[in-house]
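Input sequence (214 aa), recorded before submission:
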Amino acid sequence: MKEVSETLTLRFGGEALTLCLCWLLTRRDGVRIGVTDHDRAVSAGGVVYEPSPALDAGRFGQNDSMKPGQATAQGVLSSDLMTSEDLETGVWDGCRVDVYQVDWTLPDAGQRHVWSGYLSEISRNQMGQFTAELVSLKTDLERPVGRVMQRRCDAVLGDERCGLSADGRTCDQRFETCREVFANSENYRGFPHLPGTDFILSGPAAANNDGGQR
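Predicted structure, token format:
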């Protein structure tokens, strides 16, 4: 929802040079952090955005199609915000990003929502600088829903769905292997009797065709 007051709308339509970007970062563990590219803290929408070099203004791509929009952000690692250890362990992977434009002289007038998405890839160089790739919320529409119907098992040996202990063993996800090697056919997560393409493409039988068999 765009939280823009009439006063702020007039400011956006003018030549005001008092606008800043505020980034609300919501990690998967529920931690919420607000940062801004302004040189002082900005309080807007009930969130205090602290000045930080961790994220500079990026490029935000929007489109009317179903294709996810992309954005980029770059800056210098802040030890208070993004530690090297956090980046290496994936703490920030999948972090929700909401970007707002705020007039720092009138923060109570509201904020204009600019972009929403997720941190998808973060890379850093030896100088401590990082580049973050962001993708819009439209990527949620590309996530598969439900299961894929296939002959081979889609579980991983040793996981909860498999129900066995890996113990250094391997599995080729075939039903015969699950039944004869692991005696675990009751937990097989594939569809071994699913007709293949040969069955689908085969034509009617050349002889003894009574209309009900191939």
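Checked by second reader. The domain at 3-142 is CATH 2.30.110 (Pnp Oxidase; Chain A).
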